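We were asked to recover a plausible sequence for a given structure. The inputs and outputs are reproduced exactly as logged, with field labels preserved.

PROBLEM: sequence recovery
POSITIONS: 384
GIVEN STRUCTURE:
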């Protein structure tokens, strides 16, 4: 009877406060010196960011992304501990430390609209988890203003919404339902990451393409076997502002491009179609010519006024959304129209949503945009 009474008291005993608060994010303030030093440190631009199935025929559906089965009631203590992520919050200069899956929820909320299809959200959750897993396993703190943090909350790594802001901004109505959907996408892919030859991949992604993604070497000068150019037609019909036109005066272009010539091309139609490489120019203007295109149908090299630029250089110097663009002259101005948004390497987020709308699973989306990858649990790599 004494043993029975003792057992009853143990079963009634509440969980410890420490266990109940184990998953709560912790906020640390940086020392003033670190705050002052942060702006002086440059963030490292890391590869951040689906294509139609090759062959055009009906392909057999690959197996779904492995999903973690929900733990039975009372089994939380038996779960493998999650790695923690320390995030540098750029606006406040604080560091938020929280479990991996909560971090992935914050990234997902920042990187993809909650009204996207669930399978697209799941694909994004796996990409976000893979990105941070690669950094954690490598002990990579590059591009973070302070050594205490693993990653920043900006697009230099992955955009991230802190847990406090997440709870505040998604507190009511449809937004609360949206947050529940985001967390469902994280839960249904819990712990799953993409690997290539046994290692987490650089899971870069971007907003939308103009029809094709890029080979990694055409943007970062490094050939990555799983970051290959693939067709991505799904976003064409669903992406807002897929084509955006910028207007520049001659003086603006001279200044931004660093040209010293008096005039820019008077009539040039630079079409990034993969075939139309001929550029016309009037005798009054300087010659402009597309020299080459990338596999993703973006400008690779272009000569403007005798100066050769890469498409990426033109994009960055002019602040364009994409290096896939056309260029023409009208009423004394130069009109540049871009197609898609982002660097173009890896997964197109709008393309992923378009695939999901047509019935593709998260696995099909990820295997389309990341060539030759497979899936594993992050706990498996941590054990190694």
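RECOVERED SEQUENCE:
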């Amino acid at each position: 009877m004494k043993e029975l009474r003792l057992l009853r008291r143990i079963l009634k005993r509440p969980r410890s406060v420490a266990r109940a608060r184990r998953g709560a994010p912790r906020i640390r303030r940086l020392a003033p010196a670190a705050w002052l030093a942060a702006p002086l440190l440059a963030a490292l631009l890391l590869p951040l960011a689906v294509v139609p199935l090759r062959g055009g025929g009906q392909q057999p559906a690959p197996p779904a992304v492995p999903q973690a089965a929900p733990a039975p009631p009372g089994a939380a203590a038996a779960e493998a501990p999650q790695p923690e992520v320390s995030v540098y919050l750029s606006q406040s200069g604080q560091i938020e430390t929280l479990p991996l899956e909560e971090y992935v929820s914050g990234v997902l909320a920042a990187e993809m609209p909650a009204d996207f299809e669930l399978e697209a959200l799941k694909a994004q959750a796996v990409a976000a988890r893979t990105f941070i897993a690669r950094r954690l396993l490598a002990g990579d703190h590059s591009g973070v203003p302070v050594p205490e943090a693993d990653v920043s909350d900006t697009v230099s790594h992955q955009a991230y919404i802190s847990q406090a802001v997440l709870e505040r901004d998604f507190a009511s109505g449809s937004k609360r339902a949206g947050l529940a959907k985001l967390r469902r996408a994280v839960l249904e892919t819990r712990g799953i990451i993409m690997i290539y030859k046994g290692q987490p991949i650089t899971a870069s992604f971007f907003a939308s393409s103009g029809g094709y993604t890029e080979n990694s070497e055409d943007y970062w000068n490094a050939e990555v076997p799983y970051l290959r150019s693939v067709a991505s037609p799904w976003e064409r019909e669903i992406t807002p502002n897929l084509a955006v036109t910028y207007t520049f005066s001659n003086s603006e272009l001279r200044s931004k491009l660093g040209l010293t010539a008096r005039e820019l091309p008077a009539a040039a139609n630079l079409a990034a179609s993969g075939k139309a490489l001929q550029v016309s120019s009037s005798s009054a203007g300087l010659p402009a010519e597309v020299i080459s295109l990338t596999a993703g149908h973006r400008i690779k090299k272009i000569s403007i006024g005798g100066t050769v630029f890469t498409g990426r250089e033109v994009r960055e110097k002019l602040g364009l959304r994409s290096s896939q663009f056309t260029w023409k002259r009208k009423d004394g101005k130069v009109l540049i129209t871009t197609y898609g948004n982002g660097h173009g390497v890896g997964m197109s987020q709008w393309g992923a949503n378009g695939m999901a709308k047509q019935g593709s699973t998260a696995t099909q989306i990820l295997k389309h945009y990341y060539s030759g990858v497979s899936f594993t649990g992050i706990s498996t790599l941590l054990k190694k």
